[in-house]
Design goal:
Largest sheet of chain A: 2 strands, antiparallel
Helix content of chain B: 40-55%
Oligomer: heterodimer
Number of strands of chain B: 2
Largest interface: A-B, 41 and 36 residues
Shape of chain A: rod-shaped
Distance between the termini of chain A: 24 Å
Order of helices and strands of chain B: HHEHEH
Number of strands of chain A: 4
Order of helices and strands of chain A: HEHEEEH
Radius of gyration of chain B: 19 Å
Number of helices of chain A: 3
Structural class of chain B: mainly alpha
Number of helices of chain B: 4
Structural class of chain A: alpha+beta
C-alpha cells in the first residue's frame, strides 16, 4: 500500500528537518561563545541530507525484494554533521579572562543571518511535510470507508 | 450470470491505485526539498493509466504522443503483453526546473504542493466514483 509509505517518507523528512533545526539552535546559542584558541572554539555545524529509498527510511529490517521500481518513494536521511570551514573571528580583548598571550580571543564562525534563513527554511519544510502527512491520512481514512453505505 | 468486477468498476479502480502511487512520488519530492542533487520526479497520469487499462495506441491517440506506449500484439497464450499493470521506472519522468538552483535540486516546493493538493482532490473524485459503483452493486444485489 503506497499511501502507507508516505508516512515513512514525510516522517523521515520531518526528522531530518528537526535535526537541521537543532543544529541551527546550537549554532545560534553558541554564536558568542569565546575560546582561548582556534582549536577550542565552537564551529558552526550543519547536517548533510541525502535521498534514501523509502523502505530504508523507516529504519526497520530491509527486504531486498520489496525494493521494486514501483516503490519509487524516497525519504531523507542525514548522512552526518559537518563543521563549517569558514574563517573564525579573532578579536583583540586583552581584558578577557580567556585571552591568549597576544591578547586575542576567538569567536565562532557562526553567521547569525545565515542561521535565521536556515531556521525559516527548515520550519517551512517541516510544515509542508506535516501538511502532506495529514492529507495522506485523510486519503487513507476515505479509502477505508470504501463500500460503506 | 456473473459479476465481472473489472467491467463493473471500469477505469476507477486503476485510477484510484495510480492516484495513490502518484501521491507517494509527490510526497518524496516534497520531503527532499532540501536534499542537494535530488531530482524531482512525476509521471504522465493519462498515458500510464492508458497502459494499465490495456488500451493500445489506436484507442488512446487523444493524449500526447511523446510518452505514448505501443501495445505489443499477443497472438499466443504464452506471449507476454507489455500492458500489464506493473509500474516501471521508465514511466517516471523528471521535472524540468523553472528556476534551477545551485545545489542541483530540481524540486519546486510550490509546484509540488499544488500537484499534491490536486492529486488528493482527484483521489477523492476517483474514490467517490468507485464507491458509487460499489453502492450500486449492493443496491442491485439487495433488490430493494
Amino acid at each position: 500500500m503506497s499511501l502507507m509509505s508516505i508516512f515513512d517518507i514525510s516522517g523521515s523528512a520531518m526528522s531530518a528537518q528537526s535535526i537541521r533545526l537543532n543544529a541551527t539552535a546550537s549554532n545560534m546559542a553558541n554564536a558568542n561563545s569565546a575560546a582561548g584558541s582556534a582549536d577550542a572554539v565552537y564551529k558552526a555545524r550543519y547536517p548533510v541530507f541525502s535521498a534514501v529509498q523509502s523502505a530504508l527510511a523507516g529504519g526497520g529490517a530491509v527486504d531486498p525484494f520489496a525494493l521494486q521500481a514501483a516503490d519509487s518513494g524516497k525519504g531523507v536521511q542525514v548522512l552526518g554533521m559537518m563543521e563549517s570551514e569558514a574563517p573564525l573571528q579573532p578579536r583583540y580583548e586583552p581584558e578577557h579572562p580567556l585571552a591568549d598571550a597576544d591578547g586575542y580571543v576567538f569567536y565562532p564562525n557562526v553567521n547569525v543571518v545565515e542561521e535565521m534563513t536556515n531556521m525559516i527554511s527548515s520550519s517551512r519544510s517541516f510544515q509542508a511535510n506535516v501538511d502532506v502527512m495529514s492529507a495522506a491520512r485523510t486519503m487513507m481514512q476515505r479509502v477505508l470507508s470504501l463500500g460503506q453505505m | 450470470m456473473t459479476i465481472n468486477f473489472s467491467n463493473a468498476l471500469g477505469v476507477h479502480e486503476q485510477a484510484l491505485l495510480l492516484r495513490d502511487q502518484r501521491s507517494t512520488i509527490l510526497a518524496s519530492n516534497i520531503a527532499n526539498t532540501d536534499t542537494p542533487g535530488y531530482k524531482a520526479r512525476d509521471f504522465d497520469f493519462a498515458s500510464v493509466l492508458r497502459g494499465r487499462m490495456g488500451m493500445g495506441a489506436e484507442e488512446g491517440l487523444a493524449g500526447s504522443g511523446s510518452t505514448q506506449r505501443l501495445a505489443l500484439q499477443t497472438s499466443n497464450a504464452g506471449h507476454i503483453s507489455n500492458t500489464v499493470s506493473t509500474f516501471s521506472d521508465d514511466d517516471l519522468l523528471y521535472r524540468t526546473p523553472a528556476q534551477p538552483s545551485l545545489d542541483g535540486n530540481t524540486v519546486d516546493e510550490q509546484l509540488e504542493n499544488a500537484a499534491f493538493a490536486r492529486n488528493a482532490l482527484e483521489h477523492q473524485a476517483s474514490f467517490q466514483f468507485l464507491n458509487g459503483k460499489f453502492t450500486g452493486l449492493i443496491k442491485a444485489l439487495r433488490g430493494e
